[in-house]
Amino acid sequence: MPRIKYATILRVLVILGLFCVWLQIMVSSGLERDGEELMNGNDTSEQVLALVPQELHKYLTVHPRNNTANSTDLPKNITEIRRAIKRYNDAQTIYNEDIYGPVLNDTVIIAIQVHTRLTYLRHLIVSLAQARDIERTLLVFSHDYYDEEINNLVRTIDFTKVMQIFYPYSIQTHPNEFPGVDPNDCPRDAKFEQAIKLKCNNALHPDLHGHYREAKYTQTKHHWWWKANRIFNQLQCTASHTGMVVFLEEDHYVAEDFLHVLNLMRTTADKTCPQCELLSLGTYLKTYQYHATADKVEITPWHSSIHNMGMVFNRTVWNSIMSLQDQFCEYDDYNWDYSLLHLSQNRKGREKFKVMMCKGPRVFHIGECGLHHKKSNCNANLVISKVQKLLQTTKHLLYPKRLTASINPGGAKHNKKLVKGNGGWGDRRDQEMCTNMTKIDRQLKKYVYFA
Question: Quick check: 39 and 368 in contact, CB under 8 A?
């Protein structure tokens, strides 16, 4: 009997142990899901909705996906998605142009980089809808993921002109080949000698940390570079454009006076800082002292991690960037902003980019989840509500009549010269593709580099 009881207890313990292991795996996999999946739920808090005008609730309304077999809205395979992307990119359709008039040479263009974080995008659109003079702008939504739910949302915008452009070399459209993940790509953590033996793609050229490429990281830099090239060099409506281009992302949120302040910044820069090539409408702060900063701007050397939100520049600056495109494309850093910083610090005979920055930001970062944010409690409503309340309580401080500029030379860390990048961009295929994107109507080549 004792032996039987012992065997029974042992079996129970083994089963319990296996169950605990299974449970741990399930919990871990849940926590490691992409942040965008965690926060794309259908629930919108009543608190957030209460601060959104009733007529704009339509942009926050989630419609159930049509999953019927007869649905013709959703492309069924990669080939159809590629065709749809080419069709839209070729058409260059400007929605609502019949209502708000054509794009002029000085029209403010707002370029929005979009991935898949639909909840954030909804609130960005709501904030844009409430901005004064938004009807005079052109919104260009640049997508690296083709999704009809996102497309339908963008095409419901009725408060200004809208265009969609689609990054055609995405992971979605190239899942089993470069610039997606080729089956013969070297594993990220493969040692150099191991990669040589495997004869995997780009074995001879790991990044500066000894790692091989990860497509999900390289895509963001490629997309930003393609988008800028597309807007300045390839769209018919911007062929003679000389105005400002505002760079936003799907997880940004704008104050209602951001265009008013942008115009004031341009006027102030012309008078007090003609050498300022960049404007920055946002900055990363944990607390906002709006009472002291709503009408203040700061002139300082541009730094990627501080001044990359709500960044603004025109064609003249873009041409300066283009003249040093090799600095951008060959720099071993998968971040577009750090690559720009490297370019800025290596302009022969010219100083580093100078920026005029809003000390009382008009662009806010509401993204708690995504590529670089892996929080398990990705509640978009908490941050959105915080920004909404801030703008509501400080509304009397918006729309300043003039801006007061101060000069800040920046600290040692601010002005520290980059010695090396963050890596992730050692693959020769990425560098060559980046360079080729500056060519109009380039065709994607088969990039394969064996040891």
Answer: yes
